[in-house]
Amino acid sequence: MEDVVIGIDFGGTTIKFGLVTRTGHIKRQWSIATPAKTAPETVMAEIVQEIKRRVSSAEHLLGVGLGIPGSVRPDTLAVYDCNNLGWNKDTDILALLQKGLDIPLVIENDANAATIGEKWQDSTSKDNLMYVTLGTGVGAGIVLNDQLVHGFAGAAGELGHVIVDPKGFKCTCGNRGCLETVSSATGIVRLYQKESGQDEVSITAKEIFDQAKQNSPLALNVVDQACDYLGLALANVANVLNLEEIIIGGGVAAAGEFLRARVERAVDKYLYFSAQNHITIKLASLGNDAGILGMAKLVLQKVNK
Ligand SMILES: [Zn+2]
């Protein structure tokens, strides 16, 4: 029998599953649509069914890891703040999974999971790093001395709500000028609408980057602003934590070196003693598989203890 684990990336639109070997090879992966506004009991029962259906009799399932778009309380492991899923109160998802699965289970915030996935698959990665995901919002996972940082309520890494312009755009959290109002995919579009003077203009962040690469002055201005705000937030965090490496992932990172070089320039501009505190800014290498692999790695760490 071959030892395997299952890593799950529970997103707002799809739930992605990966059956992963001990060495980090994804043997099979599949996804199901995230049921809209469904009670946690129903979704977890569906996940249990998927797992039971997909593991063959020649495979020994060691455990399952679930990455979720919300925070996990370190003491009770209850999940909260899953706004995309419509679950706002503390929910004991682990107990729901345990009803159908009598094996080791791990639950973790999705950005933290992606952080561990990237770190596992990159033999050159450092022990003091931050992984940043630029998508609809901005999330981050922080590793210090080779350990994930959770904070007292499990909400560490809320980089998206670091304020970069107190007089800026209103954020969904109630504050103004949070990083994700300007440097997420939606934030970049909002900056473009402001700079173009057309509030209703329909464009995507990818199209803005494409135009910037073609030297459109308007798009270049917007991309430069978004990268400067991002570099400001990253440098501030790096100053506090003395980070060695920042990894940029998420959909916006598809803009590649064009994005990375600008963020690096901005970080260098704002970083304290940048010459002494050299920090590497790099692009994520795993794309959509980072969350699955990170959860698989966390399960392997748990069962190997
Ligand atoms: Zn905010």
TrEMBL record:
InterPro entries: ATPase_NBD (IPR043129), ROK (IPR000600), ROK_cs (IPR049874)
Domain of life: Bacteria
PROSITE patterns: ROK
SUPFAM superfamilies: Actin-like ATPase domain (SSF53067)
Pfam family, one: ROK
UniProt family annotation: Belongs to the ROK (NagC/XylR) family.
PANTHER family for the chain: BIFUNCTIONAL UDP-N-ACETYLGLUCOSAMINE 2-EPIMERASE_N-ACETYLMANNOSAMINE KINASE, ROK (REPRESSOR, ORF, KINASE) FAMILY
Name of the protein in question: ROK family protein
